[in-house]
Specification:
The structure holds two protein chains of two kinds. Chain A has a domain at about 5-45: Orthogonal Bundle (Histone, subunit A), CATH 1.10.20. The longest helix of chain A is centred in the middle third of the chain and has 22 residues, at about 25-45. Chain A has helices at about 5-15, 25-45, 75-80; strands at about 65, 85, 90. Chain A is mostly helical. A two-stranded antiparallel sheet of chain A has the order 2-3. In chain B, about 40% of the residues lie in helices and about 20% in strands. Chain B is built from 16 helices and 15 strands. Chain B has helices at about 5-10, 70-80, 180-195, 235-255, 300-310, 315-325, 335, 340-350, 355-365, 375-385, 390-405, 410-415, 425-435, 440-445, 450-465, 475-485; strands at about 20-30, 65, 85, 90-95, 105, 115-120, 125-135, 140-145, 155-160, 165-170, 210-215, 225-230, 260-265, 270-280, 290. In chain B, the strands form three sheets. In chain B, strands 3-6-7-10-1-11-12-13-14 form a nine-stranded mixed beta sheet. In chain B, strand 12 (about 225-230), helix 4 (about 235-255) and strand 13 (about 260-265) form a beta-alpha-beta unit. The longest helix of chain B has 20 residues, at about 235-255. The radius of gyration of chain B is 29 Å and the shape is elongated. Bound molecules: zinc ion. The site of zinc ion has 8 residues of chain B, from loops.
């Protein structure tokens, strides 16, 4: 059985998702997520030793396309959707922390 | 051992020796016509945001479709790295960074396409490869304001042309023990990328990007805490950054401090690594299966086709030259790197002295068009040189003509007035010069090694003048020594 989700776990996940939760909200979501995980624990209780792992719900594999260029979008149209543009590029606020 | 490590170990007496441990992670862009999941061109240097579409911009309702050629390139590279090709799946790597419009990067996580391989260095050392998986590249951010460095930036400008370009990330095991080995690994990997045609592998353009995980330890101990070094845009930077970082970590430990696991940025201008971010703010990319892409399960037929497309690899080519020439694979590295191994093998097969062929290929054929040289003509030239019909200098001149305009070495030598000086004739000339310079000869015979060295130059010069440069310097030196002894 997995360990019960803690308030700290929820705070961590909220931080990763850049969500600022109040103390009340942390309390509330810890309870809700615990209920969700309890449900998952029910499934975990089943004996699935003979069931092959499923990596995708759709029974398809090798859906591929040929390496052929198709038209891209018009830049003016693309940039017109952006909140801010500079030098033909998307202008965004500085970001800190995570990078691939 | 690092240079710094071994020197420190020796100088500081009581200090135990340090061992450097390096593992490289290499991202290479695949040479496909289009991106990994859409038909936008995979093209370097295009006008910003011209190669974008709903898929690579992550617009709602768009769906990715995997590029067959990218999968094939990944498998070909995997086989060239002696990996096993496995059924694979894609996952979303989530993060908050504006270089991916989707806020996640599609990568392979627990089921990579290539697993467990290795790469053999020219030295014969075998370096493990943990995995080589497919993923999409990110867009390109330019930081404006501040010092241009990200944490000082006022704002960023993003170009999504590169977002979605197919990459293979090759994760090497921490089997490297010096900056020289790390450079050799990166160079060998680059040679394999080029030989297989899967990438143009240009470090300076970013189509091959190397990150180095560096730690230090005393030999036989557990691995030390590692730091990941980024922004290595050349083999030279790679070597310098690893040596700097090893020294920094050794200094820290010897000062009683500890190495903190972090990502560091190499600054080529000041020759140092700088903190980029600390592992303390641990990565948590919340990988989860990509629901929009189905598994890739290559058939036996497809795998066989890929297998057949793997060319003879640099390591095998070095072996072939080494065997034919009776040298070590490391001695054959340069000719293979220059693509002259076919020429060298054919010239040796045509009867040329292997070592002389290798010497020419190493020193005199670093030029365009050398690989188009007729191997029989090269063999003929080498044989003329071996027989004493041409001096080494003359052979070099003739060879340059052959590369530039073709033709037979005998004709070119004739046209240049390079005439063979027979051994007898050369002996006569040497004796004449000795007789005409009795004082110098006396000092040559009775002087110390230094004097004799200087006078060797004098006598060889005199003989060269007398023969209009048609004498072989080494043969003259040998004759002088013979006359001195006899
Ligand atoms: Zn696209």
């Amino acid at each position: 059985m997995p360990q019960k989700i803690t308030r700290d776990d929820v705070a961590h996940v909220a931080d990763l998702a850049r969500l600022a939760l109040s103390d009340d909200e942390l309390e509330q979501f810890t309870g809700q997520l615990a209920a969700v995980l309890d449900h998952a624990a029910d499934v975990e209780a089943l004996d699935v030793a003979d069931v092959p792992p499923t990596s995708h719900p759709v029974p398809l594999e090798n859906v591929l396309r040929d390496d052929v260029v198709t038209p891209s979008l018009d830049r003016a149209e693309v940039l017109a959707q952006a909140p801010a543009v500079e030098d033909d590029r998307f202008r965004v606020p500085p970001s800190l922390g995570q990078e691939p | 051992m690092t240079e710094s490590g071994s020197r420190r170990g020796a100088d500081e007496g009581g200090t135990k020796q340090w061992e450097l441990v390096v593992g490289l992670e290499v991202h290479c862009e695949l040479a496909t016509a289009t991106k990994l999941f859409c038909g936008c061109p995979n093209q370097f240097g295009a006008e910003p945001n011209t190669n974008v579409c709903p898929v690579c911009l992550g617009l709602p309702g768009s769906l990715p479709v995997l590029n067959r050629q990218a999968v094939e390139f990944a498998m070909r590279l995997g086989r060239a790295l002696h990996c096993t090709v496995e059924p694979s799946t894609f996952a979303r790597k989530n993060y908050f960074y504006p270089d991916m419009p989707k806020d996640y990067q599609v990568s392979q996580y627990d089921q990579p396409i290539n697993a467990e391989g290795h790469l053999d260095l020219p030295s014969g050392q075998r370096i493990g490869i943990e995995r080589a998986h497919l993923e999409e590249d990110t867009g390109k951010s330019t930081h404006v304001g501040g010092g241009g460095r990200i944490h000082e930036a006022g704002h960023s400008l993003v170009d999504y042309n590169r977002a979605g370009v197919p990459l293979v990330e090759i994760v090497g095991r921490p089997d490297l023990r010096s900056s020289e080995d790390a450079k050799a690994y990166a160079a060998e990997l680059r040679a394999i990328l080029l030989a297989t045609g899967v990438s143009d592998a240009k470090m300076e353009e970013g189509s091959m990007r190397v990150d180095a995980n560096v730690s230090v330890r005393h030999p036989g101990e557990e691995f030390g805490t590692r730091c990941e070094i980024k922004n290595l845009n050349s083999l030279r930077s790679l070597g310098r950054a690893i040596d700097y970082e090893a020294r920094r970590q050794i200094d820290l430990i010897e000062a009683g401090e500890r190495v903190i696991q972090q990502t560091r940025h190499w600054d080529e201008a000041d020759g140092r690594t700088h903190t980029l971010r600390s592992k303390e703010e641990a990565y948590d990319y919340r990988y989860f299966p990509e629901p929009d892409l189905v598994p890739v399960v290559p058939s036996a037929e497809w795998l066989a086709e890929v297998e057949a497309s793997v060319p003879t690899l640099p390591a095998e080519r070095r072996e072939a030259v080494a065997e034919a020439a009776g040298v070590t694979p490391a001695d054959a590295a340069l000719v293979v790197e220059r693509g002259l191994d076919g020429l060298v093998l054919a010239a040796i097969a045509a009867g040329a002295d292997p070592l002389r062929v290798l010497t020419h290929a190493d020193h005199n054929l670093a030029v365009e068009g050398a690989d188009a040289l007729d191997p029989r003509a090269l063999a003929e030239l080498v044989t003329m040189e071996a027989d004493g019909a041409l001096t080494a200098t003359q052979a070099k001149t003739v060879l340059a003509e052959m590369v530039a305009g073709g033709g037979s070495p005998a004709e070119i030598a004739g046209a240049k007035g390079f005439e063979a000086v027979s051994a007898d004739a050369l002996g006569d000339v040497v004796d004449g010069i000795i007789a005409a310079n009795a004082d110098e000869w006396d000092r040559y015979v009775n002087g110390d090694d230094k004097t004799r060295g200087k006078l060797t130059g004098f006598f060889v010069g005199q003989v060269m003048r007398a023969t209009q440069g048609n004498a072989d310097g080494k043969a003259v030196t040998a004759l002088l020594e013979q006359r001195r002894g006899g």
